[in-house]
Amino acid sequence: MKKIVLTGGGTAGHVTPNIALLPSLRKASYEISYIGSYKGIEKELIEAEKVPYYAISSGKLRRYLDIKNLSDPFKVVKGLGQSIHLLHKLKPDIVFSKGGFVSVPVVLAAKFCHIPVIIHESDITPGLANKIAIPAAKKVCCNFPETLNYLPKEKAVLTGSPIRQELLAGVAENARSYCHFNTDKPVLLIIGGSTGSKVINDAIRAQLPVLLKNFQIIHLCGKGNLDDTLMNTKGYAQFEYISQQLKDMFALANLVISRAGANAICELLALHKPNILIPLSAAASRGDQILNAKSFEKQGFSYVIEEEKLTADSLQSAVDTVFSQKEDYIAAMKKSTQIDSIDKIMDLIEKELAH
Questions:
Q1: How far, in Å, CA of 97 to CA of 95, rounded?
Q2: So what's the architecture of 166-334 in CATH?
Q3: Which segments of the chain are extended strands (E)?
Q4: For 243, how many CA atoms within 13 A lie in the half-sphere containing its CB?
Q5: How many Å separate Cα 306 from the centre of its chain?
Q6: Is 194 part of any known ligand binding site?
Q7: What are the φ/ψ torsions at residue 122 (nearest 5 degrees)?
């Protein structure tokens, strides 16, 4: 039986693409193992998928001054030793890495053990962990055409991001019932991330009376961000977080407002959902969401509002514009070649094993 080790963690974005690959890997008769950190979000997510999980020591690689910079390199070295031991034990034919700091010792160990590695980079510019790992990789998959400029030409492959196939099988009427919507008004879905976004929440709620004239609204506002004064507002359904019902909400939505994390926007692309992206500001990140959003805007997939320019008025203008031009956005997304990424990545894996 062919064996593969998956790795990646730190955030859900470094795990869900790996989860999206699981059905195809199982169908192709791979024996799958996962190497992640002791306490990262990947442990819970992967164990829920019934995949054997192995934890290693993981240190964070920082670009800024921090006292932990003195101790974390030792954690990485320890993780490297643990990874070498695990790879000797598991004997995989190939390693697939989704990035995040925990993946660095795994990828370096794979090179030491002469095991081929394929890496996936979600954002336009590679993060620090992947920058360290890329020299050890045979191929580097990416989401955006612009990313090809930052990668070794002989390794770079534009694949798009693996999308959980269950997201494509939502039932709109299930979401309509769950949200207690009883009209045929179009539905606006707002996704601010698991922790929510105060600036997005405030803009939506400030404009709520106007938006509700033309839309029913599903607002995923983040943990601790429910507004009790709006609980009984007709046509407005707010939730801290949604998991199982998300596919149905996507199916029901006519327009989506979202942050611009790479996995999130690739899901919108695969679902052909007209969307407005409000990327996390450069002050609160390394600016990757801004670059992601600009790429999607350039390709005609998205309308972008900079967080600093988000107001109730700019939000309303964007909603009116995108909804009136929704067929143009859908047509552009349907032309994209970045949607069948699972097949492309599986093909790369098989080709590496054939060498």
A1: 6
A2: 3-Layer(aba) Sandwich (3.40)
A3: 2-7, 30-37, 53-56, 94-97, 117-121, 139-142, 156-158, 187-191, 216-220, 236-239, 255-258, 275-277, 302-304
A4: 3
A5: 20
A6: yes
A7: -80, -40
289 is in an annotated binding site: yes
Spelled out in words, what is the top-level CATH class assigned to the domain 2-163+340-354?
alpha beta
Q: Are the C-beta atoms of 107 and 137 separated by less than 8 Å?
A: yes
Domain limits of the chain?
Answer: 2-163+340-354, 166-334
pLDDT in tens, 55-69: 999 766 544 445 454
Element (H, E) at 321: helix 312-324
Cβ-based neighbour number of residue 131 at 10 Å:
14
Nearest to 190 by CA among 202, 206, 201: 201
Question: pLDDT tens, 247-298?
Answer: 999 999 999 999 998 889 999 999 999 999 999 887 666 788 999 999 999 9
**Pick from 35, 39, 42: nearest CA to 14:** 42
Fold match between domain 2-163+340-354 and domain 166-334: yes
CB-hemisphere CA count at 13 Å for 199? 16
DSSP 123-177: SSS--HHHHHHGGG-SEEEESSGGGGGGS-TTTEEE------GGGGG--HHHHHH
Q: Which amino acid is at 223?
A: K
Q: CA–CA separation, 35 vs 63, rounded Å?
A: 25
Is 11 annotated to bind a ligand? Reply is yes
